Amino acid sequence: MPIHKGWIQSINYCEGNLISGGEYKTVKIMNPSMLQVTETIIVPSTPRAIDMKGGKLLLGLRNECIVEYAQPKQGNIPSFLMYSHSNGEVWGLDVADNKILTSADDHNIFTWDYKTRKMVKQTTLNEKGGKKIKYGASTLSTLPDNQCSRAVCLNKKNSHIAVALNNGDVQIRQSINAIDKIVKQMKVCDRWIECMSYSPDGKFLAVGTHVQLVHIFDVDAGYTQKGVIKGHSSYILALVGA
Question: What is the pTM of this model?
């Protein structure tokens, strides 16, 4: 008998219920003696693991998150027990006070509190997907280049966050507590960017590219380009603010 559209990703018999997770972000709770679906729940991502105890539904999702439904039959909002990047590699990372910034090829930027070991802020790179660039980065992600990021860095003087995209753009975001607010977006090159660094005084941003150039931007002048460092024999893979 058909239960889900698409294939079934997970199934478990728990507390008298047969529970299954389908490809299209659905969980079906079935009465096995009557072979009837008693509840359908729409979930944030495809369920890959299912369990239930004391009426609480626990799901491991394809986007690497773990969620719990306290009262699944009432369609309540899930509690996220764990967040994670998914859909490709994690590359971008910077640290400020007790916060960690990460970006990846999965469209997400996360702020983590490493003392509580929790994700405290989340945003995405671009609402609309762009075209695949000619010389794109090798990745396991299924997303376009403008929704992938391999470098982030924090300006400790004015709290700006620089986020490099795989299409050669750099976004400047307001702060670690307002990572969803874009102050400026600029096209730096036509390849992906793997490293960036603010100067210790916060006045300049250096962006290393896969076209063998380092671009220097004047922060106080609204991120106007100050200069370009040439002569490298290969891609720029690392930068350190001295």
Answer: 0.82
